[in-house]
Specification:
Blueprint lengths: L3 E11 L6 E12 L4 E5 L6 H9 L9 E3 L12 E4 L11 H12 L5 H14 L23 H13 L5 E5 L7 H14 L4 E5 L5 H6 L2 E5 L5 E5 L1 H21 L4 H13 L4 H9 L6 H12 L6 H18 L1 H21 L4 H20 L7 H9 L4 H30 L13 H25 L3 H17 L11 H4 L7 H12 L15 H26 L3
Parallel strand pairs: 3-7, 3-8, 5-6, 6-7
Antiparallel strand pairs: 1-2, 1-4, 8-9
Length: 556
């Protein structure tokens, strides 16, 4: 009985939300048996990666055509199938051991510490990574070559799936951009683990070393159909026949078998259909309204099981990453210190502008790191959600860890305000204690962090998030009343001014500082607590909006 069986699989995508569709895969049929290592090859745009996502259950075929152990249950046995995408999903600040341990804990929070340690060590030995267990992953783009090599990073990525004791491992382009020595080692490791679980590789290139290890090759042509299926040794005969059909037997016998093979593979790559790739990139909707409703309900079902465990694990991991980078710790002191002193020097004597400046700086310091907190690790989040990470727990841990560092920033700002107020030459008008300064500043930082996370959940690219953040900063500043003339009455001029938490926190700073002429701001001395509570409520609403947006955009 085959482990996985595919029968006459077809897959269509709609063209730009129209009624027309394009067939990406047609009539795909093959079997995957236990302890088998298979490669799916073909030109760009032939549907290799799409086929892998269909096998993993990330996409749905036109009709039932994928069977697991002769049963139609591919959607319900995804914990038995591992999937390593083409792009790496690793945190550079963590060690190899920490990366695998956190991944295993998120998948199964009920495991004890000893069980996690034992399972991780066994996996690292099988992946030949045991000697690198305490090595930091590092950045693949780093100029100082610190951390792991490309082949080692690939093996760590595979380890994150293999550690789940899967029966089938799907790998998308595991050998891309690797040096020949790294590529051979990855292939050897994959052959070893194929003895315990079947391995299916998608690749646009085949090395001679890989050909010797494979049990079967599936070749897709430019229209998404199987052009060849069989043993690697039979692939050369297949290309021989095709080459003779195109060039005649006289030319064919002048080339070696290997040369004819690579010439044919090169010819296949030139036949790739650009339109197919464009459509595959742009397609957004599939299926009926009922299917969309099913996906919506599935995504928004709140999974209470292990929610607190996921929160603790992700928070612990983020704190390790934060303290592992000394630059982060220094910036949390230097940046607010520099901005605070600059503001106190330039705005000395003007309580209204000074308090507004500090409130805005606190908001800015919260929004900047948060605006790239999600999209900078988008691939990691997508992989972890697929094996059960609760999105709400993930988002809550981000809010907590971002604002733990915000406590330091706000304390620095308070110290700057209170210290400069004691310097006669600076004449900084501060007439309150550090507590009444800290609360509004921290509320502004919290507001900035949730706004930044919302931006990061909407945009996939960090560059787009930066542009959006600049726009949002301008809007928030204009609606805060910081730059408005003293004669402006915000209670009657514009309703939007009354739903901006930065304005409330700015007013709280003014109230706590016993600043006169508060009528124009719409605040009284009794509004300090009320303003803080309203700001927290708005932050909660933005958090919920971010949670919904994140599930829709990142995890569909």
């Amino acid at each position: 009985m085959p482990l996985l069986k595919v029968e006459s699989l077809n897959y269509d995508v709609r063209l730009n939300n129209s009624n027309e569709s394009l067939r990406l895969l047609e009539g795909i049929s093959f079997e995957v048996n236990n302890s088998e290592m298979i490669a799916i090859i073909g030109p760009s745009g032939s549907g290799k990666s799409t086929l892998l996502k269909l096998l993993r259950g990330l996409l749905r075929p036109n009709s039932t055509s994928i069977y697991w152990k002769d049963e139609d249950c591919i959607q319900s046995i995804q914990n038995q199938i591992g999937y390593a995408p083409q792009f790496e999903t690793l945190h550079s600040e963590l060690s190899v051991l920490e990366t695998c341990s956190f991944s295993l804990q998120l998948q199964n929070p009920t495991l004890s510490t000893n069980e996690v340690e034992e399972k991780v060590n066994k996996t690292l030995q099988e992946m030949r990574l045991d000697t690198l267990a305490n090595t930091q992953v590092g950045d693949s783009l780093s100029l100082n070559n610190s951390g792991l090599s490309g082949g080692q990073r690939k093996r760590v990525s595979v380890s994150l799936e293999f550690i789940k004791n899967v029966e089938l491992l799907l790998l998308d382009e595991p050998l891309t951009s690797l040096a020949p020595s790294d590529s051979q080692l990855v292939v050897d490791v994959l052959q070893e683990i194929s003895e315990t679980c079947a391995v299916v590789i998608v690749s646009h290139e085949l090395s001679e070393h890989l050909l010797q290890k494979l049990d079967k090759i599936i070749l897709l042509n430019e229209v998404g159909q199987i052009d060849f299926q069989g043993k690697p040794a039979d692939l050369f005969e297949h290309f021989d026949q095709r080459y003779e059909e195109q060039n005649g037997p006289e030319l064919s016998i002048k080339l070696s078998q290997q040369e004819r093979y690579w010439n044919q593979l090169k010819w296949l790559n030139t036949q790739s259909n650009l339109q197919r790739k464009i459509i595959e990139f742009h397609h957004t909707s599939r299926g009926s309204l009922l299917e969309h409703l099913f996906e919506y309900m599935n995504n928004y079902t709140f999974k209470m099981l292990h929610v607190s465990d996921h929160f603790k694990i992700v928070s612990h991991r983020d704190l390790i990453r934060f303290f592992r980078n000394p630059t982060n710790i220094g910036d949390h002191v230097k940046i607010p210190l520099s901005l605070g002193i600059l503001g106190a020097l330039v705005l000395q004597g003007d309580a209204k502008l000074l308090m507004g400046f500090f409130a805005f700086v606190s908001f800015l310091l919260g929004a900047l790191p948060a605006s790239i907190a999600i999209n900078s690790e988008r691939n990691i989040l997508e992989r972890e959600v697929k094996f059960g990470l609760n999105v709400t727990s993930y988002l809550a841990s981000k809010v907590v860890t971002l604002n733990l560092s915000g406590v330091v920033r706000c304390l620095v700002l308070c110290v700057v305000l209170l210290t400069t107020s004691q310097v006669p030459l600076m004449n900084t008008p501060v007439n309150t204690s550090h507590v009444f300064l800290f609360v509004p500043l921290f509320a502004s930082h919290l507001f900035g962090s949730v706004v930044g996370l919302l931006i990061s959940s909407v945009f996939d690219q960090e560059k787009d998030s930066s542009y959006a953040l600049v726009f949002v900063l301008g809007i928030v500043l204009l609606l805060s009343g910081i730059l408005a003339p003293p004669s402006c009455d915000f209670n009657t001029s514009l309703y939007l001014f009354n739903i901006n938490p930065l304005r409330w926190n700015y007013g709280s700073l003014m109230v706590s500082n016993h600043t006169d002429n508060l009528a124009g701001l719409g605040f009284g001395y009794d509004g300090f607590i009320l303003n803080t509570m309203k700001s927290l409520c708005i932050c909660l609403i933005i958090f919920i909006a971010t949670d919904i947006t994140l599930k829709q955009r990142k995890l569909k």
